[in-house]
């Protein structure tokens, strides 16, 4: 999207947490490219004095939180590092929100939509997605459990904009964090339709949301769902005609992971109403990821 010049960019100064992270890094590049002043936070989220010092130094118009633990090599790490997960994702996120509130600063918080799973009222394939006001029904992993708790507590902070990111994808197919890179390298993959976030399209939208001072919870995914196999077929069509993959069932997947994973559709109509130009997940995948990477 083209970022609006409404309010200009001169009055903006962003303080961004997550300098060394994937989303935080992309956000900084985006600000640089659009001439938006920003600095990265130096403090640890859970250290109130350090966060206060960052805000006093930077005097931000908005704070962006792209920091948190996601686990390496994957979220299973959180199952065996529960205190570290709580420290960053619960104590840290709440501390940042609380300090921002004291200073009347809007916090744009990159959260997760992996706090839902398909259920009887939102069955797979039905097109009925979870809405912003729905209560999380997936706490199968410790990571998701802490994220759901924090989302609930943050509802009490009127200075917070919670963005439910899911299975983020960027045009950088070499990045091992990219959902496409992940599934194209797995030995076997499940095949389930899911809501996903195309970062190249949606990160600029999050900056626009800051400019519009939007608050509350937002399903931060492109409209519609796409399955693993549909993405891998696009990968084969656009990137590597010799690419092959193998599927396995959820039951077989359960044997090679520690914690269950969330699969769901989020209802993106609230975000779509605010940004009507937002593309459906499949259109966005082609425009922002596969076309630019297409091999001749
Ligand atoms: N990637 C995904 O699949 C995904 C999906 C949905 C939502 N999200 C959410 O989006 C956010 C960013 O994700 P990401 O993929 O960009 O993560 P990432 O690449 O793992 O980066 C995490 C960043 O957080 C920083 N960090 C961790 N603990 C911190 C703490 N206590 N204080 C300050 N900084 C801390 C890390 O810095 P250090 O290296 O200095 O620790 C790093 O810069 C996370 O909250 C994540 O839960 C991610």
Automatic annotation (TrEMBL):
GO terms for molecular function: methionine adenosyltransferase regulator activity; oxidoreductase activity. One of its GO terms (biological process) is S-adenosylmethionine biosynthetic process. PANTHER family: DTDP-4-DEHYDRORHAMNOSE REDUCTASE, METHIONINE ADENOSYLTRANSFERASE 2 SUBUNIT BETA. One of its GO terms (cellular component) is methionine adenosyltransferase complex. It comes from Ceratopteris richardii (Triangle waterfern). It holds the Pfam family RmlD_sub_bind. This is RmlD-like substrate binding domain-containing protein. The keyword Oxidoreductase applies. SUPFAM superfamilies: NAD(P)-binding Rossmann-fold domains. Residues 13-183 form the RmlD-like substrate binding domain. Keywords: Oxidoreductase.
